[in-house]
Design brief:
Catalyzes the reversible epimerization of D-ribulose 5-phosphate to D-xylulose 5-phosphate. A divalent metal cation binds at residues 32, 34, 65, 174. The protein has 215 residues and is an alpha/beta fold. It contains eight helices and eight strands; from the N terminus they run βαβαβαβαββαβαβαα. An eight-stranded parallel sheet has the order 1-8-7-6-5-4-3-2. Helix 2 runs parallel beside helix 3. The longest helix has 14 residues, at 151-164. Bound molecules: D-xylitol-5-phosphate and zinc ion.
């Protein structure tokens, strides 16, 4: 089953509750929260208080994407605030096992994200210990960028490795996903699609989500 995770980075933050209601009604499966620290990426977005506020307003799982240096420091606070899945970047820590231990201790799901330039093999030794791989299809930092086309080959390669190892790990794709390229991304083996602009930028959000899902 394909899951759609609207990224609230493209929502109107002055009306965040209404924006969340609108994507719930439109059939979203997860809420993707992009956390940026101004160090790991050249942008700053939201943090723990927003996750805690969202938790009080929605039953949808909160898919927290940490684009921050030294993510180990922030696993427990985000988990306590209500994150259901926490994804951190392999490039942002020298101790991914420690981050995964903290995620495990918080009894939530854990994912590892890879930047477009990062070799896929860097995640292979950790595939047994994670629930999801998030492959970035843009350089992280901003919504509204163009999908990097060699991502398709990376998705296929990872799906192949996961099938060989018989691992039930989600593949989430993030960045520049739209109603035109979603089909190819799904065919390559991704099962969770993040979209900011292609959902919040549309008036007909239900239709936007159906089209992303392949409807
Ligand atoms: C980029 C973020 C994405 C981004 C998606 O750094 O991780 O989640 O906001 O936005 P679109 O779909 O507009 O590329
Ligand atoms: Zn993201």
């Amino acid at each position: 089953m394909i899951k759609i995770a609207p990224s609230i980075l493209s929502a109107d933050f002055t009306r965040l509750e209404e924006e969340v209601r609108s994507i719930e009604r439109a059939g979203a499966d997860l809420i993707h929260v992009d956390v940026m620290d101004g160090h790991f990426v050249p942008n700053i977005t939201v943090g723990v208080p927003i996750v805690a506020s969202l938790k009080r307003k929605t039953k949808l799982p909160l898919d927290v994407h940490l684009m921050i240096d030294n993510p180990e420091r922030f696993i427990t606070p985000f988990a306590n605030a209500g994150a259901d899945i926490i994804t951190f970047h392999i490039e942002a820590t020298s101790a991914p096992e420690e981050v995964l231990r903290k995620i495990g201790a918080s009894r939530i799901r854990g994912g590892i994200s890879l930047n477009p330039e990062t070799t896929l093999t860097s995640v292979f030794p950790l595939l047994d210990s994670i629930d999801m791989v998030l492959i970035m299809s843009v350089n992280p930092g901003f919504a509204g960028q163009k999908f990097i086309s060699n991502t398709i080959g990376r998705i296929k390669q990872l799906r192949q490795v996961l099938s060989e190892k018989k691992l039930n790990v989600d593949i989430e794709i993030d960045g520049g996903i739209n109603q035109k390229n979603a089909k190819e991304v799904i065919a390559a083996g991704a099962n969770i699609l993040v979209a900011g602009t292609a959902i919040f930028g549309k008036a007909e959000r239900k239709r936007a989500i159906e089209l992303l899902r392949g409807g």
